[in-house]
Amino acid sequence: MSKDYYFVAVGSALGLGLAPIAPGTSGALLGVLIHVGVYYCLPIYYNLWSLILFFLGVVGTSYYLTPWAVAYWQNQDPPHFVLDEVAGYLLVPILFRGGQFWLTVLYGFLLFRFFDILKIPPANLIDQNMKGAWGIILDDLVSACYAVAVLYALLWLGVL
User: Fold this and answer.
1) What are the pLDDT digits (tens) for 31-44?
2) Terminus-to-terminus CA distance in the chain, angstroms?
3) Beta-carbon count within 10 A of 159 CB
4) pLDDT (tens digit per residue) in 82-119
5) How many whole angstroms separate alpha carbon 74 and alpha carbon 17?
6) Comparing C-alpha atoms, which of 115, 158, 109 is closest to residue 140?
7) Residue 27 near residue 86, CB atoms below 8 Å
8) What is the 3-state secondary structure (H, E, C) of the chain?
């Protein structure tokens, strides 16, 4: 099998990003799977550090594969290249420490995707003006920060 086969598999979050509708949302589900897997499979005192390691690995892989993905899909921000969405979701449970687990997963995912699609400033400015890997990755990380801010507001209100 060719290098492209493996890079498509990794860059599309094991094929989730190849969904014909909402590839970013589908791809971000790999981040949810990692989050849930870490929570249930590792002792609680390893959770945060494990999520940080996964996050750094996904960001590094995304940065490394971005030039290939741009050339392969002939798009400056290929919709099927969704490692940035995986990294964005993973930042949510790293920065938000509280609330009921499953509500945090659900609201964290929905809020992250909402802000990633909406792209309020500065995410939209990063998306439009920053080229290359960091432009593709950073707008998702900003969206994750917005999601975390809302999660803390929901925690303060007693929803989580």
Assistant:
1) 999 999 999 999 99
2) 46
3) 12
4) 999 999 999 999 999 999 999 999 999 999 999 999 99
5) 16
6) 115
7) yes
8) CCHHHHHHHHHCCCCHHHCCCCHHHHHHHHHHHHHHHHHHHCCHHHHHHHHHHHHHHHHHHHHHHHHHHHHHHCCCCCCCCCHHHHHHHHHHHHHCCCCCHHHHHHHHHHHHHHHHHHCCCCHHHHHHHCCHHHHHHHHHHHHHHHHHHHHHHHHHHCCC
